[in-house]
Amino acid sequence: MKRIINALKAVRRFFLRRKAIYLAWRVRFDRETRLRYLSFKRRLKRFLGSPFRDRPSFLIGPTNSANQATLWAQALTKVGLPSQSLRISGEPSKEWFTTDYALSREEWTDFALRQQLADVVASTKEIVLFESLRPVFRLQNEKDGRNLILEDFELMKLIGKKIGVVFHGSDIRDTSAHAARNPFSPFHNESPELEQLRDRTAANKALLPEIRARKIPIFVTTKDLLLDLPDAHWLPVTIDFEKFHKVAVESPIYPDPEAPLRVLFLPSRSWLKSADLIEPVLLRLRDEGAISYHSYLAAGESLTHDEVPNAIAQADLVIDQFLGVIGVLPIEALAAGRLVMSYVPEEAGEIPIINITPDTLESEIRRVARDKPRPKAGIDYAREWHDGRESLLALAEVFGFKI
Question: According to the CATH classification, is domain 241-386 in 3.40.50.2000?
Fold first, then answer.
């Protein structure tokens, strides 16, 4: 009798498992059918009613690194391609930037909210740009050992959306190769930060064969990354050109030619942005009266991005880093009519920035403090390459639409 009871229990467990599998399949089938319907409805509406059906709408996220997703989305929207940015973060209240869809990580764990986000994409978007290989939807919610982003790739293919991948720098940069070609690289010295960075980039690099096999276009925001990813497309960083050019008009450099040179150094991450090489030189020059310099590092201060224009307005010279990467801040400073110093390797191209090394930093600052040279071509460079138009052209070329 006991054997019969155990056998019946086993049969019951078998059918319960099969029922659970069926119910899970049915829920997933119904969900995917709904998304396919919304996507088809979107395509049909555009085909029947829009003379601009070859001009797609984007969702870009979920990191909004350096406000790029928002600025790209705004640039797309300005030319008639309504687009939005997405940011998923630990503490949205402390965010520097404004994002169209801003979610906390806790909110993102709500499956219903992720479903709503997928509905928005299915019914209003044609292209999704995934930043730094971070997942956005994860509707399959399977724990099969794969990277979560692959679920999103499969979902977008299922509902007929185009996708691209965007890397901003530290999310994919080959630190060993960077150290080999850059004598001033912060990756020469081992540190806990570097170890964490390597773990992150290793996980992303492991997905590159899968991305290429799926023929997903890869974009990078700095030219040095093309050395690591020669098949990628350069997607120039975008700045709010008018906001920073206003600084050049309203607050010209050298308001008092007899006053010490005003210097701004504002690293986002000290260990990565050469603070150990730059800060001591600036403090020494300040103490001897050669320059005027406020150390945000020593004061333990940080600025929101809304405060950056005013900080640049109070400076004549902005110093960046020895990483060999021309990021957002130096371009904003160029648009603001400021002199900019940074290490500019050959792969960065021709940029109107004073090229420095750790050995020439002090002498170049003293030269500028003495001669008070005027910036040349910086504003034009920022306008030509980084006001959003070149970024739109890069996206249009890869995804095959007209601006």
Answer: yes
CB 325 within 8 A of CB 224: yes
Contacts of 309 (CB under 8 A, 6+ apart): 243, 244, 246, 247, 332, 336
Residue 225 has pLDDT above 90, yes or no: yes
- The class that CATH gives domain 40-238+388-399 is alpha beta
Contact 294, 307 (CB under 8 A): no
CATH 3.40.50.2000 maps onto the chain at 241-386
* 3-state DSSP of the chain: CHHHHHHHHHHHHHHHHHHHHHHHHHHHHHHHHHHHHHHHHHHHHHHHHCCCCCCCCEEEECCCHHHHHHHHHHHHHHCCCCCEEEEEECCHHHCCCCCCEEEEHHHHCCHHHHHHHHHHHHHHCCEEEEECCCCCCCCCCCCCCCCCHHHHHHHHHHCCCEEEEEECCCCCCCHHHHHHHCCCCHHHCCCHHHHHHHHHHHHHHCCHHHHHHCCCCEEECCCCHHHHCCCCEECCCCCCHHHHHHHHHHCCCCCCCCCCEEEEECCCCCCCCCHHHHHHHHHHHHHCCCEEECCHHHHCCCCCHHHHHHHHHCCCEEECCCCCCCCHHHHHHHHCCCEEEECCCHHHCCCCCEECCCCCHHHHHHHHHHHCCCCCCHHHHHHHHHCCHHHHHHHHHHHCCCC
Q: Which pLDDT score is estimated for 340? A: 98
Is the pLDDT at 21 greater than 50? The verdict is: no
* Amino acid 236: pLDDT: 97
Indicate yes or no: pTM above 0.85.
Answer: yes
Those residues whose C-beta lies under 8 Å from the C-beta of residue 219, and which sit 6 or more positions away, are 129, 164, 165, 166, 167, 232, 233, 234, 235, 394, 398
